[in-house]
Structures are given as C-alpha cells and as structure tokens.
Known about the structure:
Layout: E1 10-11, E2 23-24, H1 27-41, H2 49-57, H3 72-84, H4 88-102, H5 125-147, H6 152-172, H7 175-180, H8 190-193, H9 195-206, H10 209-215, H11 218-221, H12 230-247, H13 250-266, H14 288-305, H15 308-325, E3 333-334, E4 336-338, E5 341-343, E6 349-350, H16 355-370, E7 371-373, E8 385-388, E9 394-398, E10 401-407, E11 413-421, E12 428-432, E13 439-446, E14 449-450, E15 455-459, E16 467-471, E17 485-492, E18 495-499, E19 504-506, E20 516-522, E21 525-530, E22 546-549, H17 552-557, E23 559-560, E24 573-579, E25 586-593, E26 605-606, E27 609-613
Parallel strand pairs: 8-12, 22-27
Antiparallel strand pairs: 1-17, 2-9, 3-6, 4-5, 5-26, 7-8, 9-10, 10-11, 11-17, 12-16, 13-14, 13-17, 15-16, 18-19, 18-20, 20-21, 20-27, 21-25, 21-26, 22-24, 23-24, 24-25
Helix pairs in contact: 2-3, 2-4, 3-4, 3-5, 3-16, 5-6, 5-9, 6-9, 9-10, 9-12, 12-13, 12-14, 14-15, 14-16
The chain binds zinc ion.
Amino acid sequence: xxxxxxxxxxxxxxxxxxxxxxxxxxxxxxxxxxxxxxxxxxxxxxxxxxxxxxxxxxxxxxxxxxxxxxxxxxxxxxxxxxxxxxxxxxxxxxxxxxxxxxxxxxxxxxxxxxxxxxxxxxxxxxxxxxxxxxxxxxxxxxxxxxxxxxxxxxxxxxxxxxxxxxxxxxxxxxxxxxxxxxxxxxxxxxxxxxxxxxxxxxxxxxxxxxxxxxxxxxxxxxxxxxxxxxxxxxxxxxxxxxxxxxxxxxxxxxxxxxxxxxxxxxxxxxxxxxxxxxxxxxxxxxxxxxxxxxxxxxxxxxxxxxxxxxxxxxxxxxxxxxxxxxxxxxxxxxxxxxxxxxxxxxxxxxxxxxxxxxxxxxxxxxxxxxxxxxxxxxxxxxxxxxxxxxxxxxxxxxxxxxxxxxxxxxxxxxxxxxxxxxxxxxxxxxxxxxxxxxxxxxxxxxxxxxxxxxxxxxxxxxxxxxxxxxxxxxxxxxxxxxxxxxxxxxxxxxxxxxxxxxxxxxxxxxxxxxxxxxxxxxxxxxxxxxxxxxxxxxxxxxxxxxxxxxxxxxxxxxxxxxxxxxxxxxxxxxxxxxxxxxxxxxxxxxxxxxxxxxxxxxxxxxxxxxxxxxx
Length: 615
Ligand SMILES: [Zn+2]
C-alpha cells in the first residue's frame, strides 16, 4: 500500500487547560446519547426502578419478560450506566437501585427464585436461566463497585454471589448436566461458562485467586461452535481474555486466538463485520449483544497482540453491524437479513431485556481504545507517548497527555489533532493508518508553517500494523509537545469491493461485460441501498438490478462526504447509475452507509448487488 508523507507543523501557544474526561463529539457520542434518551424518555417500557429490578424482586404483581434470568437487566443496567455515567443524576439512580437490589440477595448468595434446586440431578433450563442472570449481575455489581469503591457492602454481596456460583459450578459442571442442557440455546451451558467474566473481576477486586482458578476452567469447558448462542460463546471468550490481561499467560491468549481464527474460517462473520444470533447457517437475524461482544473481543485481541487484523475487524463491526443494529429509539436488538442484506424484522425486535444495555457497555470499550498509552502495547518501542488507534472526533486523554481530534471540513477524510496538554518531556505521537487507507498525508505545523526539522515516519510490520510517528526537531526520541501543537492527517481512500468468496478488489478489476455480485466499501463503511432514501430501487423485480460504475474518476466524483457534528447521517454517499431488472431505462441510486438505518424505522437495506463497469 503506497504512502505519501508530507510534513508541516503548527504550534499556537495558549495556556494549558486542565484534564477532563475523554468524550466523543461525533457519531459515537450521538449514539451514546441516543441510548440515554431511550432510558429517560421512552415509556414503553419505561426503565423505572421496578422494571429494572423485576428480575431480583420477582413480585408476582409485576411480571416482566425474562425475569427468570435473574440479574440480566438489573446487572447489565448497573454495569453499563456505572461505566458511562454522565454525573450526579445517573449516580443517584445507581445508588438507589443498588440499595434496593441488595435487599433481595438470598441466604445462599444467589439472586432470584430461592426454590430452584441446584442439586446436579435437578439442573435444567430454569437453573440455567438463573445462572445466566446471576453471572451478568456479578459483572454489573463489580463494575458499579469500580465506579463507587467506597460502598464495601457491594463487594461483600459480590463475594457471596461469587461463592454461590463457585459452589454451583463444583456441584454441576458434570458431563451429565452438560449433556442435559445441550442444545438449549440461551438456557444452555454458556450460562455457566460466562461466569468467567464476573469471577475474574471478583479476583481483581478481592485479590483472592480462587475466583480466577474457577474462571480459567470455563473456556476449556466451552464446546466447539456447533449451533450455540453466539452472545454466550463470545462472552466466554471475552472473559478468558480478561484473565489473560491479568496474568499474561500465553496459553490463555493462544486459546482465544485459535477460537477467533476458527470463527474467521467458519464463514459466520458476515460482510458487515457482525455475526448472527446463533451459529446456524439457516438463521436469519443478529443480536445487538453479539455484535457488541464481537467488537469488544476484537478490541481486546488488538490490545493484547497489536495485530492490525483485529482492529480492522473491530472497525468493520463498529461502523457497520454494530451501528446498524441500533434502532431509531436508541435500543439495540435484532436485525433481520435475507440473501441481499437487511430486511424488516416482523415487528421491530428492540431487545430492551439485554441488547440496549450491552450496546451501551460496548461503547465504554470503544471510548477507552480511541487513544491509548504507548507503554504496555505489544509494539511498544520503549519511548513514551500515545497511540491514536481510531480517528474519532472528541477530546481524549490518557496518562498525562490530552488531544482534541476534529474533522477538517474538506472532501475526503481529514483530521486535525490538537495537543491540549502534554508533559514537559519527549513524547511520540503515533497515529494508526487503517488498512483501508490507500495513502496518508501528514501535516505538522508550527505557528501555522511547516517546520523542516520535524521528523515523521511510517512504520509497518509483518502484521501490517502501520503507524505514523511524529518526532520532534533533532531528536528521534519524540518531541516536547506544547498545548495547541497541531498535526493534520489526511487519509485517501477509494472504493473497494468484496465478493461472496471474500476476495477484495478495486474498481479497476470490475468486469465490463458480465456483472458480478459484490459488496461495496468506501473506507470502513459498507455502502448499501436504503429503501428509505431510494423507495423505487427495491420494486419487484430487483434481484437482478445492476449498479453501474463509470471510470474511477467519474465514480469518485459521485461521492459526497460532508458529515455534520453529532449527526448519524455521517458517512459518505455515492450517487451512480443502475439498471433495474424488468425494464431497460437507466436510473440513479444513492449508496449510503448501512448504519444510517438507525435514523428511521426499519426497512430494506440491501448491500449485495450485481456490479459492473461501463465503458
Ligand atoms: Zn441481547
């Protein structure tokens, strides 16, 4: 991949400002706000205390869907809102919920139906439902405890719950029980194995390694993919990665990387970067929790290995399947597919019982990965500094350095990175060059002018992890960055196409005579035809519609890219001609990111099309 480097440098001196929380000001932040709006303004169902806590209160006068999964909503809500809290109002709600929730812990440490027997001979789907919810609740309690560490009673309750889970595990992880719950989907053995996440958090919180010892048994118990529930399967892999993050044992990482490779080889990763709800070839809907888990797992694997492949996969999932999964109400849930792409689900399947909270929780991990310290990264060269992994607009701080990232309002993908605060020693500012960029131009300015003694280099390795590194002046050990130093990065990207065999090719390889079936990408965005924008395109018969691409220059001229701050209509649009099956006239269609379906009620959004080039 060719890279062009141009160096300029800009420093505008202003007084340094204090540190603030990292925050996103682009689509990422708008989508987070949409979830909080859903919690606060939509009443069907309303996220009242009774609604959230129904799965631990089990009040016969307030039956709620899936309250037998005790802790599933309440735990996820506590965890996600704790880690994404916007301040005093959210914290007050959390404290109120926790105070009430703790009253409903049972004598043996569990939450939920006290009459359910956990003798090995009795274990079945009902027990599995309770275990699933209790596992999610242990995570939620400990994420709340990270947020409010002075509340020791929360740690005490978590210990009692963790001890209950270990007790149950020792009694019930037998071949006989596993056989009994085989094929029970969301009530299957993944209800056990997902404990590893909460048990690892409990080990970290208490220092007691008995919880980690139990947690590390889960991944080996996880059966091969089969037709399992993907959310439970991926959650178990995430939990195993968390143990690796604590201990650094290479065999733990190797086990997850092998499972990941198996997923990649299986064909279950869709072109939009996501997975369906089950590992079943004939299944036709996804689940927001699964997309959230896959995104989070890819980010974990990138952090652990530094391999570009994992971050590229995370980015494809984030921009496409994860974003597209979000409904206009802010909820995450289930989107439905046919052979061409998204189609309306019978009834809008907004999964307020899990996906809405799990989606919010995934945003925490994305925010934490936009900018990371160089130290501790597998590719760390020993020099202090930061890595910008994802060019997302907002203000980002890590260690003692803070930067502001803004889009430069011009065509193409251009970003201005402004240093807001930096320590008074040499630091390297590194920017990841995504694998979809065809070229990159970097501009570093001092007082608005190029500085000729600045250095920058593009560094690639065998995993195609490519970084722009900015050094200063006459040293290769970084630069003493000052507030309002500016670095500008311009990424050039063209269209690329992926066929059904996963072969990626450029526009110059499009056939002229016979059309081929392919998906169209611009940068990280999967472009589709959205019936909300193009109501006539999917008129019957449409399966043989052909998208017509002109010369490369003419096609690129059809791309408009003018994102507005905080808008979800934030990606590139491509206008081109197409031939509708059924009549020979030439027509026009607009391709847009599939994720933009969040802005309206569900409709058809196709992304597998016949394509060819026209002379
Ligand atoms: Zn879900």
